[in-house]
TrEMBL record:
Catalysed conversion reaction: (R)-carnitine + hexadecanoyl-CoA = O-hexadecanoyl-(R)-carnitine + CoA
Species the sequence originates in: Suricata suricatta
Keyword presence, Cytoplasm: no
Underlying gene: CPT1A
Record family assignment: Belongs to the carnitine/choline acetyltransferase family.
This protein's name: carnitine O-palmitoyltransferase
Amino acid sequence: MAEAHQAVAFQFTVTPDGIDLRLSHEALKQIYLSGLHSWKKKFIRFKNGIITGVYPASPSSWLIVVVGVMSTMYAKIDPSLGIIAKINRTLDTTSCMSSQTKNVVSGLLFGTGLWVALIITMRYSLKVLLSYHGWMFAPHGRMSRTTKIWMGMIKVFSGRKPMLYSFQTSLPRLPVPAVQDTVNRYLESVKPLMKESDFKRMTVLAQDFAVSLGPKLQWYLKLKSWWATNYVSDWWEEYIYLRGRGPLMVNSNYYAMDLLYVLPTQMQAARAGNAIHAILLYRRRLDREEIKPILLLGSTVPLCSAQWERMFNTSRIPGEETDAIQHVRDSKHIVVLHRGRYFKVWLYHDGRLLRPREIEQQMQRILDDPSEPQPGEAKLAALTAGERVPWAKCRQAYFGRGKNKQSLDAVEKAAFFVTLDETEQGYRQEDPEASMDSYAKSLLHGRCSDRWFDKSFTFIVFKNGKMGMNAEHSWADAPIMGHLWECQEVIEASLHSASLLADDVDFHSFPFHTFGKGLIKKCRTSPDAFVQLALQLAHYKDMGKFCLTYEASMTRLFREGRTETVRSCSTESCNFVLAMVDPSQTVEQRLRLFKVASEKHQHLYRLAMTGSGIDRHLFCLYVVSKYLAVDSPFLKEVLSEPWRLSTSQTPQQQVELFDLERNPEYVSSGGGFGPVADDGYGVSYILVGENLINFHISSKFSCPETDSHRFGKHVRQAMTDIIELFGFSPNSRK
C-alpha cells in the first residue's frame, strides 16, 4: 500500500513472477542525473566547508600570501627571520629534491603557515571583539565613541561576503554567571510576588545554596563550559524538549500565519505549488550557505546560525524514555496529506527542481483523486498528537519492518510535511475576531489528525488558498501506510486525548490597529518594554494579582545559543501597575514609574542576551545536582514555580527585502503557541511596520479564572492607557 497514493509519474510492471524492471535509456539517464545531483551537492558542501573553514580570510588570500613570500625570497629578502632556512635544512635530509625545488617548497610551507597564523589571529581577535557587549547597555539612541571604534575593528576583522555559517567559530562561548549573582537576581525577581514571610524563607534557602551546594555544582558547569561549545543548549534540548512525555501539539509546537490581508489566489493547488517551490528554493540556498547570517547593530554583530542546520529533512522520533531528532543530509520528496490520504511527491525531474506549475499539477492531481483512505490511514497522524509513550510503543510494534516501515520512512525522511486542508481560514473583515481565532486554532492543532506534529514543520494550505505553518520546537521540525488493523486502538486513543487537549484551548488572535511601534518610539522608550508593561497592567486588571512572567529572549550572540528567560514582572513594573490602578496617582507620577520600569525591563533583557540571565543557569545547576544525586530545596522550589504568563515577541527579520510603507497591506500575522500553565495565559505578539501590532492569546477553557477574549480587551485598554500618559490620543498614531 505504500505506493497506493503516490502522485508521481514513475511506473513499473508487476507480474506473477515478481517485478519486471526493464532497463532503458531513460532509466539509465535518471540514474545518471540522480548521481550527478548528489555529487554536485557534495562538491558544494566541500567548497563551502573550505570557505567557511578559512573565514575571515578567503582561499584566494593564500595565493596572495604565498606569492608575496616567494617574491621577497627572489629579491634576496628573508621575510621569515630564518624560518625558511630552517625548513630548507630539514628538507636537505630527504636528499630527493634539487636546491631550487627545496627553496620553492620551503617558501610554500612558510607562506602557508603564515597564512594559517593570520587566519587564527584574525579569528581569535574577532572572537575577543564579539565578547564585548557594552554596546547593548548604552542609552537608547546613543552610540559612544568606544562603540564606534569597536564596530570599525569588527568590520576590519570580519572579512567580506560572509556565508551563513562563516562566523560560527568566531562567536564567543556562553559564559557561566557567578552563583551569587544569579541568586541575587532571582531573589530580586520574586520579591514582588511573595509575602514578606515567604520571601525571607526563600532568601535563607537561596543564600544557603549560594555558599554551600552552589559552588560545587558551579565547578562542574565551569568544566562543561570549557569543554562543550555551549553549556546550556544540549541539556535544554534533551531535558526540556526531548524527554517531555506529554503531547507536542499545543504544549510544545507553535504556529506561523500567512499575510493578514493579502491573498494572491484562492486556487489551493496554485498557492501550494508556488509556495512549495519557494520553500525549496530557500532550502537550496540554505544547502549552499548562500543565506546571509543575521547581523545586529548596523550589520555588524553576527548571531549564531546553528539552528538553521535542521530546518529541513528533520523529524522527531518517539521513544519510551526520550525522543531523538533524526536529520538526513538530503531529501528528494515531500509528503502531502489530503482527506486522510498520504501522497509521496518527488521534487526533481531530470536532475532539476520541479517548476511551480509542475508542483501545482501534482497538487491538483491529489485534490482531484477520488480514492478513499485505506483502513487505519485517515487518522494516523493522531499518533504524533497524543502522549509520546503510546506512540513510541506503537511505532516499535507495528512500524519496524515491511511496507509500514518504508511508509513511515517516507514521512520521517521527507523534506517537510504538507497538508492540503479542506477548510477555509484567514482574516474576514465582517467577523475579524471569530475568523482569526479559528485560523489560529486550525494552525495550532487542526483536527488533531491532519498535521504530522513530529516533522520539523508542517506546511498547511487551506481550501481558499490561505497558508500557515505548524513547527516542532525541539530542533529550533505521511506515510502511505500498509494495513494498520493492529494499531487502530492506539490511534483512536491518541486522537481522543489529543482532541480533549485541542478542545480545551481558548484562543484569541487579533490585530491592534490603534497605534504601533512608530508612536511608541516617539515616547523614547523600547516598543518591547512598552508591550510587556501593558501585559503586566492587563494581567493585573484581569486576575487582580501579579504572577511570575516568562518572556523569551535569545542568546544567539554566543555560539549555539538558543533562549533565555526575561522575568518581566519586577518590583518596578509592579509599582507602575499599582500606580495605574490607583486614582490618587497623577499622570506625572505614573509616567515617572513607567520610565523606571521600562529601563529596568530593558536592562533585564540585555542581561539575558549577554549571558547573565537567571533561569538557564539555575536549570543547568539543577541538572548537575541530579547527576550528582544531591538534593537542593532551593533549586527544587525554583524550578517548580509555574509561569502563569508566558510571552514572546515574534521578530521581523530580513526587513530590508520588503518596503512595508509602500505595501502596507502585506503585513504578517505572526504566530503563537499554547499556554504553559493550565491556569495561565500564553501571549505572542509581533510589531508589524510602524502602525500595527498583532496579538495571539491562548488559555484553557477548563480553567474558570482565565478567558482569552477578556484578557485581549484588557490588553487593548492597557495599551491605550499607557500611550495617553505621553499626551497622545489613541487616534494620533500619525
